[in-house]
Write a structure and sequence with these properties.
The structure holds two protein chains of two kinds. By secondary structure, chain A is mainly alpha-helical. Helix content of chain A is 33%, strand content 7%. Chain A contains six helices and three strands; from the N terminus they run H-H-H-H-E-E-E-H-H. The model of chain B is unreliable at 1-61 and 253-277 (pLDDT under 50). Classes of the chains: A mainly alpha, B alpha+beta. At the A-B interface, helix 1, helix 2, helix 3, helix 4 and strand 2 of A face helix 1, helix 3, helix 4, helix 5 and helix 10 of B. Chain A: It is found in: Nucleus.
Chain lengths: 254, 665
């Protein structure tokens, strides 16, 4: 990148010249000009933080002025906090030795998508639906599909809404009698530990279903169904969630 | 040397500087952190780091144990004299011994310098460095640059690579005659100090035979820990391939070749399978089928294999007369943000990992990417119909591109699973994420490395994957375990590249300490150490027959290694910049390499491997005289306009796909 676009070295402030010199000494010849700005910013921010910390330590020790010990302590604390470095080699060798002693676990056949326990996956819905005050005539089959983890934006279009365009969030309840199965042969139903089982779903309980299908399996159609049953007390939940009416609509409009 | 990564608060600075070559990018931050020029901040740091008579800083127990390896050895002021004396002796030695003894210069220089620094003789250290750093070999320049900024004891504490260097013994391979000469000289009384240092920090691997020439030595040295001891490369490695399972192929197409089930009479005339060995004898070099547990073959996998075999029959036979066609996928408007690329085995999808922490998947066939319908729609479809697998896919949202959000840092590595159901991506945020390619959502985040993860790859059979990162270890994971199954520790600096062997029993890792190691998945042992590169390794490729490994690094050379014997068998010179992509053709006849110098080069792999002389001496000592035949082996150089090549892939029919991001200058 051209350096002529930024302040030429002659008229750059002294600090910027020093940064450019550091880069040159380290053998870095190609860099965007804004790197120097970022380095300066970092240097100033770091030093300011250290000095502020040192002032705090010094006043804590009831000293009249900040001295080298305070600064040293401030640096040490910041290093442990922000600038951690990877574990030392002997520690790594030690844990490696421990880990490598256990034999490789056998692989269970026919276990569908091989994922860790649900707790460690990002497949659970990260929101709850609140139930309606008034009873909703559930349209069979119209169930909400949760967005999966916060960061993963599904590229599906807006999922079928909950049947009513009202401002109140509607939780549609659909009883899931038997889990969906194509050949009826094999299916896995996984239910998060804290919730009720599928069979005991009541019509007013909002259900949320998460369906992951592995269609490339031929012959044995495995379906993983995660059912999250939320039993809610409308009364207790309505109040804290009331203020979220407007926000919930946003999900549908994404 | 190595990549020092500093956590928050400057992720943004880090991402900006991805334009700088990776190996140097964060060295400057090390310096910014621990060493600010006195012009900028006069009083604070001078006083802080002035050690003279100040209060001693409390060392953590393990660090001080490590650093105490540097006990005072003699008078610091005399270090220059010791070194000069040794230098004089070596320069006056016989020609045949001089090359070998010159290997001593670098490790001794570094260790003596670090000792001076640790014992807080800053001025002596600086003058020692000034005087002798110019004498070192050119390929150590990067290390020396980092060393030049380590002037105080505190600087050494945060630098893990430096600490590892000090605690590990630098390995030198010297012939017996040269060693005797050296020993005799150093055991004289006035050279006692150097002898102590040599004994403490160097490991001299003695071999019987002719001393090596400078050229031979230069080919093998360069790594941070010297060369590899011969014992390190003696373990038996099962480099053979696993037997292909028998699959019954429906012989309904004419001219079709398929593998028969043995012993079963077929209605149609049985056709011989031409690829894959039909012998019932176990290949002695192949690992037993059950050495490591592998997932069973599902029906879809069997179908995939049948497709593979069908395509293999239409495969073009490559060779010096028949070079592959190259199809280049250029990423436009990436603004230097493209950091990782992968292509599925059947070449139907391409994934790009970007510095803005997104992962983008494209379909390169006319068939668009479809995700599974929502649960609401799924309950509406007829489950008994024959084409239910098409019906569960959502046509409304089919598109050529799907973007996956989830990482919070640049994505440095991506890998498709062999069954095309999953995608892995690893990032600077320290996690490896598993994405489903049916729902295009993230399934799992594997946390283990707490530092940037530089590379990840699925095993050729699926289920296992390996990742390597800044914490200097590589980890083996299984998709259904949230913790790693194996930890491969031993590298002195970041693990920059990780690859599975075709039989999934071994993992090769390339590192910023300029070595390549081969690890056994079964027990985590390091079975091979390959030294010879002069820069961090950025690409690895196993040959399809599993016998050879090709490695590419920032020095622009591609080195070829025989895994069974543990020897370097080839050196391909030609590239002028980092080699970021290496791939063997499907039958191993051609090696393609792609580099930052905007070229793709094709090399004749058959010729390299056929003239191997492996007599006893070579196997015993590991010394090979490599002919300078890079020009003969080069079959073609293909230049792009201004696009560094970061990924190469041979389709099943031996068409070469290359990809990179257009970066105009």
């Amino acid at each position: 990148m051209e350096q002529s676009k930024m302040a030429s070295p002659k008229s750059a402030p002294k600090d910027a010249q020093v940064m450019a010199q550091i880069l040159k000494d380290m053998g870095i010849t190609e860099y965007e000009p804004r790197v120097i700005n970022q380095m300066l910013e970092f240097a100033y921010r770091y030093v300011t933080t250290i000095l502020e910390d040192a002032k705090i330590y010094s006043s804590h020790a009831k000293k009249s002025s900040v001295d080298a010990d305070d600064v040293r302590l401030a640096i040490q604390c910041r290093t442990d906090q922000s600038f951690t470095s990877p574990p030392p080699r002997d520690f790594l060798l030690d844990i490696a030795r421990q880990k490598n002693q256990t034999p490789l676990p056998l692989i269970k056949p026919y276990s569908g998508p091989r994922l860790p326990p649900d707790r460690y996956c990002l497949t659970a819905p990260n929101y709850r639906l609140k139930s309606l005050q008034k009873k909703v005539s559930s349209s069979a089959g119209r169930i909400t599909v949760p967005r999966l983890s916060v960061g993963a934006v599904s590229s599906r279009p807006s999922t079928p809404t909950l049947g009513t365009p009202s401002a109140q969030t509607v939780a549609v309840s659909t009883k899931v009698g038997t889990p969906v199965s194509l050949t009826g042969q094999r299916f896995t139903v996984q239910i998060p530990s804290s919730q009720t089982t599928v069979k005991s779903a009541t019509p007013t309980t909002p259900t949320v279903q998460n369906v992951l299908i592995n269609p490339s399996l031929i012959g044995s159609k495995n379906i993983l169904i995660t059912t999250n049953m939320i039993s809610q007390n409308a009364a207790s939940e309505a109040n804290p969630l009331k203020r979220k009416h407007e926000d919930d609509d946003d999900y549908d409009n994404l | 040397m190595g990549i020092q990564y500093l956590h928050n608060p400057f992720h943004s600075v880090l991402s900006m500087c991805i334009t700088i070559t990776r190996q140097t990018l964060a060295i400057i931050y090390l310096q910014a952190l621990s060493f600010i020029y006195t012009d900028v901040i006069p009083l604070v740091y001078l006083d802080t780091f002035a050690v003279g008579g100040g209060v001693p800083v409390e060392d953590q127990p393990d660090v001080s144990a490590v650093l105490s390896a540097y006990k005072q050895q003699g008078d610091p002021a005399l270090y220059e004299e010791y070194y000069s004396g040794l230098k004089h002796f070596i320069e006056c030695a016989l020609d045949c011994h001089r090359a070998e003894l010159s290997q001593l210069f670098y490790p001794l220089f570094v260790h003596m310098y670090l000792e001076l620094v640790y014992n807080q003789h800053e001025n002596e250290a600086k003058s020692f460095f000034e005087k002798f750093h110019g004498d070192q070999e050119c390929y150590y320049q990067d290390d020396l640059r980092v060393l030049s900024s380590l002037t105080k004891k505190e600087h050494m504490k945060g630098n893990e690579t430096m600490l590892d260097f000090r605690t590990s013994k630098f390995v030198l391979r010297i012939s017996r005659d040269s060693y005797q000469l050296l020993k005799r000289h150093l055991q004289e009384k006035q050279n006692n100090q150097i002898w102590n240092i040599v004994q403490e920090h160097l490991y001299i691997d003695i071999f019987d035979g002719m001393p090596r020439s400078k050229q031979q030595i230069d080919a093998m040295v360069g790594s941070l820990a010297g060369e590899a001891k011969r014992e390190a490369n003696k373990a038996k490695v099962f480099f053979g391939l696993l037997k292909e399972p028998e699959i019954e192929v429906p012989l309904d197409d004419e001219d079709e070749e398929g593998e028969n089930e043995e012993g079963k009479p077929k209605k149609k005339k049985p056709k011989r399978e031409s690829m894959g060995s039909k012998s019932k004898k176990q290949d002695p070099n192949a690992p037993p089928q059950t050495r490591i547990p592998l997932p069973e073959l599902k029906d879809s996998d069997k179908l995939d294999k049948i497709m593979n075999m069908k395509e293999a029959t239409k495969r073009v036979r490559l060779g010096p007369e028949c070079l592959p066609s190259i199809c280049f996928y250029t990423f436009l408007n990436a603004y230097q943000g493209l950091t990782a690329v992968d292509v599925t085995d059947d070449s139907s999808m391409i994934v790009g990992g970007f510095a803005d922490s997104t992962v983008r998947v494209w379909s390169v066939t006319p068939k668009k990417l479809r995700s599974v319908k929502s649960a609401a729609d799924l309950s509406l479809i007829d489950k008994e119909s024959d084409d239910v697998l098409e019906r569960i896919m959502d046509e409304k949202t089919a598109s050529e591109l799907k973007i996956l959000y989830g990482h919070s840092g640049p994505v440095y590595g991506t890998s498709f699973s062999p069954d095309r159901n999953y995608l892995l991506s690893c990032s600077e945020d320290g996690t490896v994420r598993l994405w489903s390619l049916q729902t295009f959502t993230c399934l799992v985040g594997y946390k283990g490395h707490n530092y940037p993860v530089w590379d990840t790859q699925f095993s050729p059979y699926g289920y296992y994957f390996v990742s390597g990162g800044h914490d200097r270890v590589a980890r083996l994971w299984a998709t259904d375990h949230y913790q790693p199954l194996r930890i491969f520790a031993g590298h002195l600096a970041d693990v920059t590249c990780t690859r599975f062997h075709p039989n999934s029993n071994y993992i090769a890792t390339g590192s910023a300490d300029r070595t390549v190691r081969l690890w056994d998945v079964l027990n985590g042992n390091c079975v091979r150490i390959f030294t010879g590169h002069k820069g961090p390794i950025h690409s690895l490729a196993f040959s399809p027959n599993g016998r050879f490994l090709a490695t590419g690094a920032t020095d622009g050379r591609v080195l070829l290694w025989d895994i069974g014997h543990g020897l370097m068998v080839g050196e391909l010179k030609g590239h002028t910049d980092t080699v970021y992509a290496l791939r063997f053709s499907r039958d191993g006849e051609i090696l393609a390499s792609g580099s930052m110098d905007n070229t793709v080069r094709l090399w004749d792999a058959v010729k390299v491997f056929e003239d191997l002389e492996t007599d006893d001496f070579t196997t015993a000592t590991g010394h090979i005289n490599l002919p300078e035949n890079s020009q003969d082996l080069l079959l073609g150089t293909y230049m792009t306009k201004s696009t560094p090549v970061i990924h190469l892939h041979f389709t099943r029919r031996n068409l070469l796909l290359a990809s990179g991001a257009y970066s105009p200058q």
